[in-house]
Amino acid sequence: MGEALKQRLKTQKFDSDDLEVILDIFVTANYLRSKHDAVLSKYGLTSPQYNVLRILRGAYPDGYPRCEIISRMIEPAPDVTRLVDKLVKENLVERFYSDNDKRLSLTRITEKGIKLLDKIRPDIDDLNKLISSNLTKEEKKKLSELLEKIYSDSLKE
């Protein structure tokens, strides 16, 4: 298979093709995450915070309860309440109670949160272009299909 992984991990061979593929996925995920984190840190956000803001923007002007936020996260955070608390402190999101069920706490993005996402967007778009510049449209589609084959069974659970 490829030589880049061998060079990156300073090895000559892998125990199996399966292991090589898994390691390639891990190295790639780490690379993408570090690039993404570097962009977000300029705006004082972590990846999970950014993920929550994007989720809530999709529900705007309504909001979501905590369990719905968790179910939509790329990497579900163990303590979404604390994460949301930090976003509330920064006035990027707000909590409110459902009109239909006063026991149900919802979270929604604020105008300040939307403006921050709008401000971040060009940097994220540039990062996405940089990351995918080595792939054709067909390769991107095929890669997405292949990666989905790996985790799609987990969606049935």
UniProtKB/TrEMBL annotation:
User: Which SMART domains does the record match to this protein?
Assistant: HTH_MARR (SM00347)
Domain HTH marR-type residue range list: 18-152
Q: Which Pfam families does the protein's record reference?
A: MarR
Q: What InterPro entries does the annotation carry?
A: HTH_MarR-typ (IPR000835), MarR/SlyA-like (IPR039422), WH-like_DNA-bd_sf (IPR036388), WH_DNA-bd_sf (IPR036390)
Q: What would you give as a GO molecular function for this chain, any one? A: DNA-binding transcription factor activity
Example of a GO biological process term: response to stress
Give the PANTHER family listed for this entry: TRANSCRIPTIONAL REGULATOR, MARR FAMILY (PTHR33164), TRANSCRIPTIONAL REPRESSOR MPRA (PTHR33164:SF101)
User: Protein name, please?
Assistant: Transcriptional regulator
Q: Which organism is it from?
A: Ignavibacterium album (strain DSM 19864 / JCM 16511 / NBRC 101810 / Mat9-16)
